[in-house]
Specification:
The chain is an all-alpha fold. The protein is built from 13 helices and 2 strands. It has helices at residues 2-43, 58-65, 67-98, 103-119, 122-133, 140-147, 159-190, 200-221, 227-233, 244-254, 258-286, 309-340, 360-383, and strands at 45-48, 51-55. It has a two-stranded antiparallel ribbon with strand order 1-2. Strand 1 (45-48) and strand 2 (51-55) form a beta hairpin. The radius of gyration is 25 Å and the shape is globular.
């Protein structure tokens, strides 16, 4: 009798679990699975506007024979390499250095590197970098060129220069985000299990798995980047900084080559699916999970018990200094833009279509500043 009741309860728990998962399953199928299948099927049709012409792999053949596609793919792969290099090194070193100290150091450093997360706004970031490179009296690069006795010029008009500029901006933006997210992820992995201080052997697997998950996420997300290339130069082919996502948009909605655009989307989806499957397999087979540990748990892998504290202090200072410099460089044009634009409304005659009715600085004060203060003073402290 007891065994029968136990079996019935097990089935009830299974059914209850499936019932709770049902809304998520419906959303996953309707929002992810069906559109993905539709895109793959569309990629097998040759289409000009809305007229279906043929069936097969001609769209993929066209892409691999298209010289512009190879140029777009080359720039996208360069962007992937830059982002992976940024994500792979500094955030991990920063977390290892911060982990050697107690809460007095860990919490302020985590809060400090969360600021780039709060400030991250892709369109605004791309726009202020564009304004920084437009020559004029109130612009950052123009001021620097005059300081070097060089005539102001539009650096964004040179295809070779603009590639280096775009990759540098992308790397700096990724740097700030990677440091903030890396500290949250890696410090959790370095905490270990249980109430005792972990050894390197105990934290090695979760740390490496977390690191690999970060790299896979970076590889999956980079081909989908759109904003920087579009805002910085308009994303034209002559600029040389068109990404795969932007090329998909141009093919589908600019040239009305829906089939070729769907084929390009399918290739990006394959990369995202493979990275997602790799992440899922890593998490499942390594048993990676979140656990609650003691707040006052001893930390540190190198300096536990006061040993080699000088090494940890020097490492922390060096990595935090590099991290702060990188983050400051990523937001410096934004600060310059705010300060330089507090003057007359006509401070940006070459960057905007017409003279704005208010200064850009006043627009910042009215829009971005309240949101930033709300995040900095309320949301971040509550979250932590």
């Amino acid at each position: 009798m007891n065994e029968g009741k136990s079996g019935n309860r097990s089935w009830l728990r299974v059914l209850a679990g499936l019932g709770l998962l049902l809304p998520a399953i419906v959303c996953c199928i309707s929002v992810l699975v069906l559109p993905t299948l539709g895109t793959i099927i569309q990629s097998l049709f040759g289409a000009d506007g809305m007229a279906v012409l043929s069936w097969g792999v001609d769209n993929y053949t066209y892409l691999f024979q298209d010289r512009r596609f190879s140029e777009v793919l080359g720039f996208t792969l360069s962007s992937v390499a830059v982002r992976v290099a940024v994500v792979a090194v500094v955030p991990l070193l920063l977390a290892l250095a911060v982990n050697e100290f107690g809460r007095v150091v860990r919490i302020p450093v985590r809060l400090l590197f969360t600021i780039p997360l709060a400030l991250f706004a892709p369109v605004v970031t791309a726009l202020v970098w564009r304004l920084a490179f437009v020559p004029g009296d109130s612009f950052m690069i123009g001021t620097l060129l005059r300081g070097l006795d060089m005539p102001p010029r539009s650096l964004l008009a040179d295809p070779e220069v603009v590639k280096r500029i775009a990759l540098s901006i992308d790397g700096l933006t990724t740097f700030g985000l990677a440091c903030g997210l890396g500290l949250i992820l890696y410090l959790a992995a370095l905490r270990g299990q249980g109430a005792e201080a972990p050894s390197w052997k105990e934290v090695r697997k979760p740390l490496i798995v977390s690191w690999m998950v970060g790299l896979l996420a970076t590889i999956a997300l980079t081909p989908q980047s759109f904003t920087l290339s579009f805002v910085l130069t308009g994303g034209g082919f002559m600029s040389g900084i068109m990404t795969l996502a932007l090329y998909q948009y141009v093919m589908s909605f600019g040239r009305f080559m829906v089939g070729a655009g769907a084929a390009l989307s399918a290739l990006s989806l394959i990369v995202a699916i493979l990275c997602g499957l790799g992440t899922g397999l890593l998490v499942v087979f390594t048993g990676l999970r979140l656990e609650r540990v003691s707040w006052g748990k001893e930390v540190g892998l190198v300096t536990r018990g006061g040993r080699r504290k000088v090494i940890a202090v020097l490492l922390l200072l060096a990595v935090v200094f590099i991290g702060c410099i990188g983050c400051l460089l990523s937001i410096f044009p934004r600060m310059w833009n705010v300060v330089a634009s507090l003057g007359s409304p006509g401070a940006y005659p070459q960057a905007l279509e017409g003279p704005p009715s208010v200064s850009i600085g006043q627009a910042w004060v009215n829009t971005v500043l309240p949101a930033f203060l709300a995040i900095l003073l309320f949301q971040m402290p509550i979250t932590y």
